[in-house]
Automatic annotation (TrEMBL):
Homology family: Belongs to the Tom70 family.
Biased composition (Basic residues): 57-69
SMART domains in the cross-refs: TPR
Pro residues bias locations: 664-673
Protein name: TPR-like protein
Keyword field: Membrane, Mitochondrion, Mitochondrion outer membrane, Repeat, TPR repeat, Transmembrane, Transmembrane helix
Source superkingdom: Eukaryota
Cellular component, GO, one term: mitochondrial outer membrane
Gene3D superfamilies xref list: Tetratricopeptide repeat domain
């Protein structure tokens, strides 16, 4: 757990975006029998729980197979399979089939299918498969039901052939893309083959086509998303990519420490001339100066590169090397390389034992490593060196805040303010912790004091705006965000875009102005593409607006950016769900169009006050927020004379599955028994 001045507030922005949008979404929640959709797609709620894959809730009564033992999960006792060659008549030849009239061919196909159904019920899967194959061969025109029933044979055989199950479902779906049973059967086979993303695609299509009326289908989607999320989460955490956070986050980290003078550099050796030289200096002293210059200019990537180079070259004195290690340790910590940061800061302390800042920084590293007691011990050692250093009390307060010890945190912030009254973050955090303690009036008073003391700093206005937002004091919140935005735009880059995100969220909550909220989020992303709060906002709002392609990109981006496990899990769930739903929109555009026409919020009237994103921040050009023309889903027409009466289907691979008589078109999702 790091103790940067604004990390806790930044997380609350992301959480607030997700929680509020989730509470007010106009979307289908997978796992609920909802009747409204966003952009014609399903919206996976982070609060949905993964269902038990073995749930039998809502299942219709099936014909019973013979079972051994007493338990319901006892193995099926298979009857001896009959050889297809034992059929009373051989398969018709090509010439014999060609000699039949279309009506005769259809009648023969119906006979084969009826016999196949009987064989299937008797668990004679090889025999049933042969009969369905004959039905396919003789039928005057292809019938999706024959391929789907053949797939059911391969799925339910004692030695299932999942590849053939998928292949035959593919053929059925070419003939009838709305064939729910074939989709469900293919999804189960794909899952058995380990093709989980494709399985999720089919489960999602089933759920939407059934209008969310089947709880089991919804739980299949939840379960598949959970499996994919767990797998991707593990992969991401095992890779442990070391990546620098956004500039605003780095700003916050270094801003949490008071400015201090650079260590005195040794005088150049007589006769040395490093200026204008094309060669590297003999030591890293000059390179360290360049690294510190880059740090002052907030050119963080260059500063990190230069300090690495300086340490490779070597510094000519211990204090200089300690300074370089302190700086590199800071960048390693920000890049999530806690072990590297710990090693650098430990060596820096050995070289410069009286460095308070190195001890304060290593305390944060210990907290991140889950070694809080060592973190507090490092701060105690720093106090022995300088008991009047305000940084020590401020960071002790941050650690107390993270550990949810607000009273002790408040005391530390007050001590930091007494020692360093010109440090803005101590005053902000004192107001924040007072609010956390439920002392709303005191918190407001402290924020107003911080604003009076730092009228040209955006942070007091922004975080006071967050308090007002939480109190649903919309006009006052927006007013403070506007001042913060103005101050940020007037200062030197990089701009802190959180006030833009917060203003958008306030307008969304206050006036349900989703389009202005989107524009503000896009403006924030144009300035800082790595801002997690802005990414999370656009991901959620794009989903609300039916711009699922944009939302999918943003959820994957959030998964790449976040360092918080809970946020990573949430982003991955939404990302996988959005990807699956994009495929649904591609495969079933008429259904998506129907939902879009009902649910997409209308574009606002011309508003000169609303911020307009520039060309680089425009939303996905393939998406549209305008209501689309309603198109009713294609309903199943009259079947050929081969159609009969069959039972409901289950997922592929279940031994209780009943063969079908025809594809079913929602609603209702299944044909009656």
């Amino acid at each position: 757990m790091s103790s940067t001045p604004t990390d806790t507030q930044t997380l609350t922005v992301v959480e607030r975006v997700q929680s509020f949008v989730s509470e007010h979404k106009q979307a289908i929640i997978i796992g609920a029998a909802a009747a409204v959709a966003i952009g014609g797609v399903a919206y996976y709620a982070s609060t949905s729980s993964a269902g038990d894959a073995s749930s039998r809730s809502g299942r219709r009564k099936k014909k019973k197979g013979k079972k051994g033992g007493n338990g319901k999960d006892s193995p099926i006792i298979e009857e001896k399979e009959r050889d297809p060659e034992e059929l009373d008549e051989p398969a018709l030849t090509t010439e014999q089939i060609a000699a039949l009239t279309p009506e005769e061919r259809d009648a023969k196909a119906l006979q084969y299918k009826t016999d196949g159904n009987a064989a299937f019920h008797a668990r004679q899967f090889r025999l049933a498969a042969e009969l369905y194959i004959r039905a396919i061969a003789v039928a005057a025109k292809p019938e999706a039901v024959f391929y789907s029933n053949l797939a059911a044979c391969y799925a339910n055989s004692p030695q299932p052939d999942h590849e053939k199950t998928v292949a035959n479902c593919d053929e059925a779906l070419k003939l009838d893309p709305m064939y729910v049973k074939a989709l469900n059967r293919r999804a189960g086979a794909l899952e058995k083959l380990g093709k989980l993303t494709e399985a999720l695609r089919d489960y999602t299509a089933v759920t939407i086509l059934e209008r969310f009326a089947n709880e089991k289908s919804s739980k299949n989607v939840e379960r598949m998303i959970q499996v994919l999320t767990d797998r991707q989460f593990k992969k991401i955490r095992e890779e442990k990519k070391l990546k620098m956070p956004p500039p605003t986050f780095i700003d916050a980290y270094f801003g949490a420490f008071r400015e201090r003078p650079r260590p005195p550099f040794p005088s150049p050796k007589p006769g040395s001339d490093t200026k204008g030289s094309d060669t590297k200096p003999e030591t890293g002293d000059e390179t360290l100066k360049l690294a510190l210059d880059a740090l002052d200019a907030r050119d963080y990537l260059h500063a990190f590169s230069l300090v690495n180079e300086a340490l490779e070259q070597g510094e000519s004195w211990d204090e200089g090397r300690a300074e370089a290690l302190n700086l590199r340790g800071s960048f390693r910590f920000l890049s999530a390389d806690t072990e590297g940061a710990h090693a650098d800061l430990q060596e820096a302390i050995k070289l410069s034992p009286r460095s308070v800042q190195s001890r304060v920084k290593i305390a944060s590293v210990y907290m991140e490593m889950g070694r809080g007691e060592e973190g507090f011990a490092a701060l105690d050692d720093a106090l022995k060196i300088d008991e009047k250093d305000g940084d020590i009390f401020y960071h002790r307060g941050q650690m107390m805040f993270i550990m949810e010890r607000p009273k002790e945190a408040a005391t530390c912030y007050e001590q930091a303010i007494a020692l360093e009254p010109n440090f803005v973050f101590s005053q902000i955090q004192l107001a924040v912790v007072k609010y956390k303690m439920g002392k709303v009036d005191v918190a407001k008073k402290k924020f107003k004091e911080a604003i009076r003391n730092f009228p040209n700093r955006s942070e007091p206005y922004n975080y006071y705006g967050e308090l007002l937002l939480d109190q649903q004091l919309w006009p006052e919140a927006v007013e403070n965000f506007d001042i913060a935005i103005k101050l940020e735009k007037e200062k030197k880059p990089p701009m802190n875009v959180l006030p833009l995100v917060n203003k958008g969220l306030a307008l969304y909550q206050w006036k349900q102005d989703i389009h202005t909220a989107e524009a503000l989020g896009l403006e924030a992303l144009a300035v800082d593409p790595e801002c997690e709060a802005a990414v999370a906002t656009i991901a959620q709002l794009s989903l609300q607006l039916g711009k699922v392609e944009m939302s999918a990109r943003m959820f994957w981006k959030q998964a790449e950016l976040t360092k918080v496990d809970a946020e990573l899990v949430n982003a991955l769930k939404f990302a996988f769900a959005s990807d699956a739903q994009l495929e649904f929109m591609h495969n079933y555009p008429h259904i998506a169009k129907e939902f879009m026409a009902v649910t997409t919020p209308p574009a606002p009237a011309s508003n000169t006050d609303a911020p307009q994103p520039g060309p680089s921040t425009s939303a996905d050009p393939s998406s549209s927020t305008a209501p689309s023309e309603t198109t009713a889903p294609a309903e199943g027409g009259e079947r050929s004379q081969t159609e009969g009466h069959g039972g409901a289907s289950e997922s592929a691979g279940t031994t209780e599955e009943t063969e079908e008589t025809s594809p079913s078109h929602p609603p209702p999702p299944y044909t009656p028994s």
